[in-house]
Amino acid sequence: MNLFDHLLDPTKWTGGDGIGARLLEHLFYSGVSLLAAMLIAIPLGILIGHTRRGNVVVAGISNATRAIPTLGLLVLAVTLMGTGTLPVVLCLAVLAIPPILNGTVSGFLNADRDAVLAAHAMGMTPMQVIRRVEWPLALPLVVSGVRSAVLQVIATATVAAMAASGGLGRLVLDGQKRQGGYPEVFAGAVLVMALAIALDIALGALTAALRRRTRGRTCKDDPKDTGTTAAPTETVDAKG
Prior knowledge:
Its main location: membrane. One of its GO terms (biological process) is glycine betaine transport. It is a multi-pass membrane protein. By secondary structure, the chain is mainly alpha-helical. The protein is 73% helix and 0% strand. The protein has helices spanning 5-8, 19-51, 55-67, 70-81, 85-109, 113-121, 126-156, 169-177, 182-220. Helix 5 (85-109) crosses helix 7.
């Protein structure tokens, strides 16, 4: 038995049940879930990180969501809402919120305080400080949190098949049901792994580029090395 038979067969990539369709479904579930998680976690993280209040809430949310088994949550969601896309997206979004929230809060808390204080001293409004100072400095850690969430969601999106939905998990489930279906199971596992690795490399490169940009901007704005010295002042002693 050649485990690559299913993966390398061009006919297996076409059709509604083909690998191509399953891959697009997997990306759809993952993308919608990540978007929903970012719409919740990033604004909340900005609020907590900017005000420096609510770190206990972040820790509580993170610990609570990490303690929830994804499969158990999926079964509960399917029981309450039925099969389909919604329960899958809900479960994956819950899984993605903690790393994005942690990354956003950490980014704002680790923003250069001198730059933030200087922005306040210049008369910037809180929104201007967030948009022009804190957000650019926090962005590398925000992307790092999204990167962690992407890896978890891509790997866990295979459970979508258990909710009568599509995705690469269908290859695993359908292959297990068929006699001699191990090449199909192998194809599903390899594609999930390859997709996770490719996205991790891309987001890792983006994070590194943002870190270099942030360091360059910090060095450029550093007033310590301006190449000028203060001119001596003379004291005039006026008598009489």
